[in-house]
């Protein structure tokens, strides 16, 4: 279905054409009519499927021509990056219509607080906010949400994982009882269904392509020990010199600096991004990556759902995410909008069990790529659950056990 077939404001259609959108994605095709009809909505669709346009476009269509200075729409998201991303997309789509919006999130200075406060008092049409920062403003007593008619939760499952369920319920208590509520989630655990019963009224439920990586992603796995990962990444990058945009994901903030250091030692342009950086620095790093001034970005799972960068060639999972769903979100950073991309996962013996859960989730056995003999002995696939990870080398290879006592033959000590 073409966007031109929708009955939307001509100025919005012009913006859509300008941004290069032509055909609706499945989530857009099902969600937009339901939102137009004022239904509450419980929608499940993985990252990269066009969810933002699915809920922003109908809202902007309704707001086109609005003259009153009140807040109409409140969008709650789990991270600063996602708040910024959605607000930027709102600005792009509303370029030819008079709709005001602002992203409200933590990490700024006093000047940003005053800017946010002014927008909340004067009534920006659309507020995109993280829960904690919005509650800080709400508890000061100057926010008026009496005219909010649309309440949207994006990445709801991630917000619940991050412990925001009580914050969400408290924010809802500041809103009118009569409103349209839209809940978007990449997964549909029992906790989301329970939350939907609290917030939604006679909702329409939509489920699109749950937990499946895009077809355009070429996935592969390398079975390695931890002390082989940095050298293997160097080898992989040398084979992919034409790739201009690469993300390396790790589950630990503590590993980011280690990975960046190893990359720079090998001559690669790389920077890390995590909550340890100031907000200004995070935005600077992310902007450099988006503009292709930075080739390699090292990040945690928080960024896997909070970044929208076109034409990412390669995603490397430095380690296996504990949550199988996070694998889908990491891999979803590449091959967006029907493009092609590559995803490589480095799996050590400790991580084999969790990786087997990922394969069960997505219903695919991912190809095990051969590791060059120059790296020495590598683990054998054996996805048992390890009770004592420290003894894992004893479990997976008698040869490796022998080499632990012969340092000259150990992969760590080879050139």
* DSSP, total strands: 14
Radius of gyration: 23 Å
Number of domains: 2
Q: What is the CATH topology descriptor of the largest domain?
A: Rossmann fold
% residues in beta strands: 15-25%
Order of helices and strands: HHEHEHEHEHEHHEHEEHEHEHEEHEHEHH
| Major sheet attributes | 7 strands, parallel
Spatial strand order of the main sheet = 3-4-2-5-6-1-7
Q: Give the N-to-C terminal Cα separation.
A: 57 Å
CATH architecture level-2 label of the largest domain:
3-Layer(aba) Sandwich
Q: Mean pLDDT, rounded to whole units?
A: 86
Discrete helix count? 16
Q: What overall geometry do the principal axes of the alpha carbons give?
A: globular
Overall CATH class of the largest domain = Alpha Beta
The class by helix and strand makeup works out as alpha/beta
Helix content: 25-40%
pLDDT below 50 for ≥5 consecutive residues: which ranges?
A: 389-415
In CATH, the homologous superfamily of the largest domain goes by the name P-loop containing nucleotide triphosphate hydrolases
Written overview of the protein:
With 415 residues, the chain is α/β, with parallel strands linked by helices. The protein has two domains: 3-208, P-loop containing nucleotide triphosphate hydrolases (Rossmann fold, 3-Layer(aba) Sandwich); 217-413, Rossmann fold (3-Layer(aba) Sandwich), CATH 3.40.50. It has 16 helices and 14 strands. The protein has helices at 10-18, 26-36, 51-63, 80-93, 110-122, 131-138, 156-161, 165-173, 190-199, 229-238, 253-265, 279-290, 324-331, 352-362, 392-396, 398-403, and strands spanning 41-45, 73-76, 101-104, 126-129, 150-153, 180-185, 204-208, 217-223, 246-249, 270-273, 296-299, 314-317, 341-347, 367-368. Helix 2 runs parallel beside helix 3. The termini are far apart.
